[in-house]
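Try it yourself: sequence plus S-adenosylmethionine, in.
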Amino acid sequence: MENQVDAGAFRQFEHKGWQEVASRYHAGFATVTVQSVEALLNAAHVKSGTRILDVACGPGYAAGAAAVRGAIPVGLDFSSEMVEEARGRYPTLDFRTGDAEQLPFENSEFNAVVLNFGMLHLARPERALEEAYRVLRPGGRVAFTVWDTPDKAIGFEIVIGAIQKHGDLNVSIPAGPPFFRFSNPDESKRILTAAGFINPVVTHIPQIWRLESPDALFEVMYNGSVRNAALLRAQQPNVLEAIRLEVRRGVELNHNELPMPAVLASAQKGN
Ligand SMILES: C[S@@+](CC[C@H](N)C(=O)[O-])C[C@H]1O[C@@H](n2cnc3c(N)ncnc32)[C@H](O)[C@@H]1O
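Structure, out:
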């Protein structure tokens, strides 16, 4: 899968996108992504004293929640704008700019590594897990969340369905690994095992996106995401308006409350 992707081009595309949306992220997607943080930390056995690395930390929610448990977190994101958001939100915590695929840490520095909705944005997720393995101590744990498939994570079904109906899903944007690749529990377990981890476990986390208005889903996808925003921005203007109205109808049908479950995968580095 990695071979079909121009990793450099995709990374650059994601990096530019996250730099641009960083200040809008908290009011948009974060209202859902924060919902899985406690389960993520539990899966990584984060407790008082745990040295934990929050990779692709965004505004730092997992690091912040880990600190509340008495853990010792470091947050890392390749977007300097996101790192600034995190520092603003959690001024006493340690946040660094860096790449998930080339972690700026020594071997065996952490007891836990987590990625909350980070894996699906990486050009080379395999490398990120190999890096997580490297910086973990023996017996340490890795945990990551991704979105469940669009038939369950309804916000995606509504938007993808609207583009399919009125527009074109095959517009030219830098190709990345399949967005829902790790929604498949077997694929998540496979990549964890391939990176050297043992005892992989996958669970599902129910989450609900309560939207302020029927237009909010389109707004967040258009202004607060990267790959889906690029997909929308590449549509013809008249088509885009039809998509917007279709998305609004989809949200109204769900009474502004969209199921957006996550898939949570975790595993351990052997002793
Ligand atoms: C969907 S956001 C998740 C943010 C946060 N973890 C949360 O729980 O809401 C994805 C994050 O991954 C970061 N990211 C994407 N590719 C990365 C990479 N190669 N290295 C580090 N961070 C990366 C983005 O900058 C963005 O902050």
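One thing you can check immediately is this: The first strand starts at residue 51 and ends at 55.
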